[in-house]
Each structure stands twice: as structure tokens, then as C-alpha cells.
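DM from R.C. (forwarded with permission)

"hey, sorry to bug you on a friday — could you get me a structure for this? deadline for the figure draft is monday and I only need the backbone to look sensible"
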Amino acid sequence: MISLFKSCFEFSFKAASAALFGILLLIAFAFTASMGSQEFYGFFRYDYLLFYALIIQVCLVYLKLESWAEAKVIALFHIMAMVMEIFLTHPQIASWQYPQPAIFKILTVPLFAGFMYSAVGSFFARSLRLYQVSFEKLPSFFNMICLAVLSYINFMSKFFVADIRLLLFTWSIIIFWKTKIHFQLQQHQIKLPMLPVLAILAFIIWIAENISTFYKIWLYPSQVDAWHMVGWGKLGSWYLLLLLSLVLVLKILGKRSTAGDWTLKNDEFEVVNK
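My reply, with the result:
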């Protein structure tokens, strides 16, 4: 019983540590909600969230809670996310909107928005190290990258050509069906199938999305007049976005054997696990 309690505590502590970036952002969303669209000392709420996110990122690297290798991956995901955001918030598309003003923005997107996606990349990168994660029967990187790229393109191309989301879901299930995740708790090796883990993570991000829209960080068209929970259909979008983030992290931060076994590149992670 004591061993089980210790394992649960270790799992929870590491999960909170891995999700630190995202947790701190959600806290800031709640505390800055009262600012609304008002200007304070020449800046708006979204601008202060940008400053706050930059401070978090610098602190994570400076305190060695995040390595430079991890930061590079997160930065790449940030850039890709901003491109998608700019497209999807264009007035002629308007999948969602940022209802409050900002000084620091690109077209319709405040610059802090990319950090919300960075938080997802940060979670994956830190989780792999903190839990000492390895993968068994991981698909080839060519296969995974093709899936990730097509998923990314489909987020934007579905407004002009057929939405191939169902095909992408099916593809992901087929290639990851046998993939297992290995991680360590209290010197015990845990093995779990990958697909249910991704589904759970997509659900957690969906909850975070509901918190974010409640505090008017962004709004979907149906939420402008009155807030309501985000539709369950967004779970699929988050699932595919998670795959994109995960593939980037796995490709850059680890190595895969011809048999499909994946492990971290030890030489890039001389960071103290905390």
C-alpha cells in the first residue's frame, strides 16, 4: 500500500512538473480576466500574458527545468502554431477569434497565443525525460512525419477541399496500434498502449480549452454572445495536434532503432530531473 501511494505521488508530482508551463498559463488566464479590454500603462491583457510567458520560458531554461534541446523543439512548434493561428483566425475563415486588443500581435493573433501550443510541446519534452520514457514498436519516422504533416495541412485545407480527418484518425490507429509506452515509477517499469494515453491527453487539453474560453482568451463564434462548453468534436482536433507535437519531439530529442524501439538522446539531456 505504501509503495502504491509513493508511486501515485511520484506520478502526480512529475505530471504537474511536466505540465508546469500550461498550469502557470491557466492560472494567469484566471487572474487577468478582470483586465478585460482595458489598457494598463500602455499595454493590454494579451501583452502582459506575452511578457509573463516569456518570463516563464526564460526561467525554465535558466533553472535547468528545461534543456536547450527541449526549448528548440518548443520554439519550432510555436512558429508552426502561429502560422496556423493566423490562417484560422483570418476574417474570411474565423474558426475562432481573440476578442481583446493587443499591441504585440501579427494580424489577428496576439503573440502570446503561440505559447499556448508551446505549453503542449513543453509537456511532451519534459514528460519524456522526467518519466524516463521509451517506446516499443514505434512506427518509422517517415510514416509519422507524413501523418503529422498531412494533419497540419488538413487543419487549413479542409476549408477548400475535402476534410480527410477520418482518414487521418484511421491511419494513426493503424500505425500506433502496437506501440507501447514504457516509463519508470519507484524503480518499477510501467508499460501502456500509446493510443489510450493520447486520447486521455486530448481530453485534458479539451478541459484546458474550456477554461481558456471561459476566461475569454479566445472564443469560438458560438461563444461570443454567451459562453458554453466547447463541443466534443474538438477532441479529435486536439488528438491530431498532439500527434504533430509528439512527432516533432520524438524526431528531434530521441533515436529510433530499426526494430521500432525509441529512447532519448542521453547526450542532449544533462539536465537535473526535478
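R.C.: lifesaver. The chain has one domain: 17-268.
me: no worries. The longest strand covers residues 180-185.
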